[in-house]
Write a structure and sequence with these properties.
The complex is a heterodimer. By secondary structure, chain A is mostly helical. Chain A contains 22 helices and 3 strands. Chain A has a two-stranded antiparallel ribbon. Chain B is an alpha/beta fold. In chain B, 30% of the residues lie in helices and 26% in strands. The longest helix of chain B has 14 residues. The two termini of chain B are 18 Å apart. Classes of the chains: A mainly alpha, B alpha/beta. Chains A and B meet through β1 of A and α9 and β14 of B.
Chain lengths: 482, 443
């Protein structure tokens, strides 16, 4: 373990985050929030200074092994969540480090669960910072660093692998750096398109940018307490379309731009669309009775928002009948495609798990039979099936232990959040969705959760965003051994 | 005609032997010195040791005078390169064996005129056999308008114990011709007074739509196979299982090598791949052998195939087909628990002989245990046969006309059918009759 090489990476990433705060400074100045601008600038200065000290003075450049890459990514994410909370604290937008860290972690991990009862109380500069954390975290800060900074060098591939959602990063080009750059361009391009479409509706330019940032990253932070319910049906339809795009693999978008038939051919995309359609149909049937267009839109919006792990809301699904609420919690585990900005288990793994399960079932009928898990018609190698199964086991174990821990925290304080709240909050944090059910439902927020619960949920968000292993690795003794 | 054959494996040496017996000038290029020396002793042909893709070696083989290049080594790359080299020497026809399907595009391969894949040819032949359950050969002409079916005459069949003349009077209403009879390993081209006994192997020509009746003549029943068991995991086995499963037949493939099973399972979604000893009755029973219609034994070992077929028969499988490497097994064992024998060498030879033009004659098919060959030719206007009926043209005794294609129609001829210029005829003939047939129809 070369600690100084790790520090080098973490420092560089922190410095990059500090630089990105300047965008919020500019916006604050534009809106005449001079005091906010000054405090955010100070936060940027502290962050850049801390990053540069670590990077230049304490760190040393060197090639990382695979496990060091994983560890560097895990540590970087905790570091940026800490430094990213400085603007909230210094401007006084949020009280106390616990709340600020929670809000920042919910930002970078694209979870979008908030402790703010009404985001509109924040200044425009801070709202932009809030949205920007999600946009940067969506595609991956380290992937971005690999794409634009030469400093991460060859080890960048190891790092990006640890950060990219999904079991197998798609290579579009021989050089990984070029691949990362192209993915970011697709990301930037689609985001820009959404800004144009949203501002053509009832959103201001600022609202358009803030929502495009949080849609494309499947984050879910809004600018209004009513989330997307505060905007017209047109804006909601645009957001539905872009949530679906954001939950699709960006490498597939890149190929689809050259040949649109690639979408239809992609087995994971087909499964993704089927899940969305099935979930929508379920909600429509459950909510049948009111105005048809509104029911369909709300059902589709909720299904897409949950499956892509965005976490926007137009309807309060916490007020739906219990069968639909349970379905909503179930959808929190699904997630979008591998290689998208979505969180949770991901369609690829869902497909592999069901196919592997079917192969096991057939093995009972044909005891000597040889059956292969596949996605579409493509066989999936055993090594990947095993890693997917082990991911699933870890994910469910984290969900269960997390739920128990939340329950213990609540009970010891006598506050008495119920099982529904605890379980849905954990599922939501782990899957990077945002709202849960019960006391943390779409129309409520996380402010009332006890401090210990907030730290636990923040931790689970980062664990979920990095797909478990880079974080859990930090807790193994073998990693730190010389 | 000078023919260069590159690669003296099973297919190459069989072709060399067959073409050499027909009087062609054969040059064989083989890279393995031991194999080359062995072949030189067996064959009346020039055997050159070397790489068939090398220009020097090809020049030594007299590539400048060659009419035909047949590249059938086990390497696709060598075969294609050899053909491309031959193309630069202006060899008119280049045939390459290419097994990798991804190399075969719709444009073909540059420098290769004919691409053959013996494994695939055999697989398709096996699928036809499965569809006609119980027959030993199926050859289709004119897109299936005419069919030649081979089979073993069952004891209670209409054909058994009668002369063909007597049978002709009994069975009417559809056109059929018994083309050849293989009795104790000797092939006879059928005449009116030929007697057929139970157990004889016969080749019957009929219109494609009448194939059920043709089968009934031999005492066989046409039934659609629902479930097929393939023994062995060779390339032919995999291709056959893949084709069968895609045509809707439940296909179970058994092989003993776990890694090969895994790969076959990966590439063939619908085939149930079972890892076990393909000759073990318990493995077969576990996979529901009692519902199986046809067992295809296609492993790489004759012994395994024979035992597999015998076990399957004992467990009640109605039809078994075995692949043989040793030709002698075909007529020794057919009928003894094995309904049909196939061989990839023969399939390859069939595929290639088609492209060996001998004058105006095309070979269409050769048969397992018989020297006879189905050929196709066009009647030239100068032919002495034009305007005469079949009985009057004086066809050699060892040849018979089984089909006529005229103006896009195909039919089974009678003795009074008049031959016209431009007809395409399908004949079954023994090798000694071929020169006479050529003189008669295409002088």
């Amino acid at each position: 373990m070369h600690l100084r090489r790790l520090v080098y990476i973490v420092g560089a990433v922190v410095a990059a985050i500090g630089v990105s705060m300047l965008a919020a400074v500019v916006v604050a100045l534009i809106y005449g929030e001079t005091s906010d601008a000054g405090w955010i600038a100070l936060a940027a200065l502290i962050t850049v200074a801390a990053g540069v000290v670590a990077w230049r003075l304490m760190g040393r450049k060197g090639e990382l092994t695979a496990r060091e890459g994983f560890a560097a990514v895990g540590l970087s994410w905790f570091a940026i969540a800490a430094f990213g909370s400085l603007p909230y604290l210094l401007t006084g937008s949020i009280d106390g480090p616990t709340n600020a860290f929670f809000e920042t972690a919910a930002g970078f991990t694209t979870t979008g669960s908030s402790i703010l009862p009404d985001p509109a109380v924040l200044g425009k500069g801070m709202l932009l910072w809030r949205a920007l954390t999600q946009w940067l975290g969506g595609m991956g800060i380290i992937v971005l660093s690999v794409a634009i900074l030469p400093l991460l060098g060859v080890g960048g591939v190891q790092l990006a692998r640890a950060e990219s959602p999904g079991p197998h990063p798609d290579r579009l080009t021989p050089r990984f750096r070029e691949t990362a750059r192209r993915l970011w361009w697709v990301y930037v391009g689609i985001t820009a398109l959404e800004v144009v479409l949203l501002t053509a509706g009832d959103m201001s330019l600022f609202e358009g940018i803030a929502h495009a940032f949080t849609t494309m990253s499947t984050g879910g932070f809004g600018t209004d307490a009513r989330s997307l319910g505060a905007f017209t049906a047109y804006s909601q339809w645009v957001v539905i379309a872009f949530m679906i795009l954001a939950g699709t693999s960006f490498a597939l978008h890149f190929r689809g731009l050259q040949n649109p038939r690639e979408y239809g051919r992609h087995p994971e995309f087909r499964l993704y669309v089927m899940i969305l359609a099935g979930a929508t149909l379920f909600f429509v049937i459950g909510e049948w009775g009111g105005e048809v267009a509104g029911t369909v839109r709300d059902s589709l919006f909720t299904a897409v928002s949950l499956v892509t792990t965005t976490g926007y809301a137009t309807a309060d699904f916490g007020a739906w009948v219990s069968g639909l609420q349970i379905a909503a919690v179930g959808l929190m585990f699904v997630g979008g495609m591998a290689g998208s900005t979505a969180g949770a288990i991901k369609t690829y793994r869902i497909g592999v798990l069901t196919s592997a399960g079917r192969a096991d079932l057939r093995r009972v009928i044909h005891p000597r039979g040889v059956f292969v898990a596949r996605l579409g018609s493509e066989p999936v190698p055993d090594a990947i099936v095993e890693s997917v199964q082990s991911f699933f086991v870890f994910y469910m174990m984290l969900f269960m232990t997390g739920t128990v821990a939340m329950g213990v925290i609540e009970s010891s304080l006598g506050a008495g959040l119920d099982l529904v709240t605890s379980a849905s909050a954990v599922a939501s944090a782990l899957g990077n969705i945002g709202p849960g059910l019960g006391d943390v439902g779409p129309s409520a927020n996380y402010l009332a959760v006890p401090a210990a619960g907030k730290w636990l949920l923040s931790f689970l968000m980062i664990v979920g965003r990095l797909e478990i292993f880079p974080v859990l690795l930090l807790f193994t003794r073998e990693l730190w051994r010389k | 005609m000078r023919i260069i054959i590159v690669g003296a494996g099973a297919v190459g040496s069989h072709l060399a032997e067959r073409l050499s017996l027909e009087g062609q000038d054969i040059v064989v290029i083989e890279s393995d010195p031991v194999r080359a020396a062995e072949l030189q002793g067996d064959l009346d042909a020039l055997v050159i040791e070397g790489n068939g893709a090398s220009r020097t070696v090809l020049r030594e083989a007299g590539v400048g005078d060659a009419q035909l290049m047949i590249a059938v080594t086990s390497s696709d790359a060598v075969n294609i390169l050899a053909c491309q080299q031959a193309a630069s020497f202006d060899v008119p026809t280049k045939v390459a064996r290419v097994e990798d399907a991804s190399l075969r595009s719709s444009h073909g391969i540059h420098g290769v005129d004919v691409i053959i894949d013996p494994g695939e040819t055999l697989a398709r032949e096996l699928v036809r056999l499965v569809r006609k359950g119980g027959v030993s050969e199926v050859v289709e002409f004119a897109d299936g308008a005419l069919t030649m079916l081979g089979g073993y005459v069952q004891p209670d069949a209409p054909l058994a114990g009668l002369s063909l003349g007597e049978l002709r009077a009994q069975v009417t209403g559809w056109d059929w011709i018994v083309a050849a009879i293989v009795h104790d390993g000797d092939t006879l081209v059928a005449r009116g007074d030929s007697q057929i006994a139970a157990g004889d192997h016969v080749l019957v020509m009929s219109a494609g739509k009448d194939s059920a009746e043709a089968l009934a003549l031999m005492g066989l029943e046409e039934h659609l196979a629902q479930k097929v068991m393939v023994l062995g995991g060779t390339r032919v086995a995999e291709l056959t299982a893949g084709l069968l499963s895609r045509s809707g037949v439940t296909t179970i493939l058994i092989d003993s090598d776990p890694e090969r099973c895994r790969r076959i399972s990966e590439d063939n979604d619908r085939v149930v791949v079972v890892c076990g000893d393909p000759t073990d009755p318990r493995v077969m029973e576990d996979e529901g052998v009692d519902g199986v219609d046809v067992v295809l034994a296609l492993s790489g070992w004759d012994e395994v195939n024979i035992i597999g077929c015998l076990v399957a028969k004992a467990l009640g499988v109605p039809v078994t087909v075995s692949r043989f490497h040793r030709f002698e097994f075909v007529h020794l064992l057919a009928g003894v628990g094995i309904d049909s024998g196939v061989s990839s060498r023969l399939a390859a030879a069939n595929a290639i002989l088609r492209f060996v033009r001998r004058g105006r004659i095309h070979s269409v098919a050769t048969f397992q245990d018989s020297d006879s060959e189905a050929i196709e030719l066009q009647v030239e206007p100068s032919s002495p046969a034009v305007g005469k009926t079949l009985v009057d043209i004086g066809l050699p005794k060892s040849a018979i006309v089984g089909g006529v294609m005229r103006n896009g129609e195909a039919f089974v001829p009678h003795g009074d059918t008049v031959i016209m210029a431009g007809d395409r005829l399908i004949l079954l003939a023994l090798p000694d009759a071929i020169p006479a047939v050529e003189r008669l129809f295409a002088p």
